[in-house]
Design brief:
Low-confidence stretches: none
Shape: globular
Distance between the termini: 31 Å
Helix content: 25-40%
Mean pLDDT: 95
Structural class: alpha/beta
CATH architecture: 3-Layer(aba) Sandwich
CATH superfamily: Alpha/Beta hydrolase fold, catalytic domain
CATH topology: Rossmann fold
CATH class: Alpha Beta
Number of helices: 9
């Protein structure tokens, strides 16, 4: 797992953003930029590239000094966050992802996942992005912050994630739980019905017209956090 500090100003509170598969820091940079204009105070650490679940050196040392840690996790990042050693978590929000990422009832259908993995290339990436974004307007926003990564690199990460899913317990052994789930009604990657089922008993915010890519509807970190208040 790779990490990058988007903001590190010795704040008392830390927000850890677990990005989706295939991404890099650019979505985080966009969200932080929008958030700072609204006087966001917390430090922000972004996690991405889950080819390995091992954090980078000094990860625990650096995050353990904070008095309060909030997690915002999107897509496969929802599962990954539960499989990384972390200090006590004050609050955790899952967006368009579940703890059962490849599961016919609570995640992505096995056949759909395998087809994505088997055919993923520079050409098919465009089709996947359109499916992820749902509309041309959302795709245009995503295109302005799409990751600077080769399709072959993204596919290798997806292969490693498949191995992680097969060799690790779905719920992980984390000493914390998700407190809130945000579900997009038009998510074509993690279908909404599967998310409802996966998060039964967990408070949910349903956004009927939101696709899998949620950062058209949530322009800043404050807007995400507002769902829990």
């Amino acid at each position: 797992m790779k990490t990058v500090w988007l903001r590190k100003n010795c704040a008392e509170e830390l927000l850890i953003f677990f990005n989706g598969w295939g991404m890099d820091r650019r979505i985080g940079d966009h969200l932080l930029g929008e958030s700072l204009s609204e006087e966001f105070q917390a430090d922000v650490l972004l996690c991405y590239d889950y080819s390995t679940l091992e954090p980078e050196p000094n990860f625990m040392l650096e995050v353990s000094r904070y008095n309060r840690i909030t997690i915002v996790a999107w897509s496969f990042g929802v599962w990954v966050a539960q499989h990384i050693e972390l200090p006590p978590i004050a609050y955790a929000i899952a967006i368009n992802g579940t703890l059962h990422p490849v599961n016919g009832e609570k995640g992505i259908n096995h056949q759909v996942f395998q087809a994505t993995l088997a055919t993923y290339s520079e050409k098919s990436r465009s089709r996947f992005n359109r499916r992820m974004c749902g509309t041309g307007e959302v795709l245009a926003l995503f295109s302005g912050m799409s990751p600077d990564r080769a399709a072959s690199d993204q596919r290798e990460e997806l292969e490693r994630l498949q191995e992680h899913f097969l060799t690790h317990d779905s719920a992980g052994s984390a000493g914390w739980r998700y407190h809130h789930a945000i579900i997009g009604g038009r998510d074509l990657v993690f279908p909404a019905e599967q998310q409802y089922h996966a998060w039964r008993g967990v408070p949910q915010t349903i956004i009927a017209d939101m696709p899998h890519f949620p950062f058209f509807h949530f322009r800043s970190l404050q807007e995400v956090l507002a769902c829990i208040h």
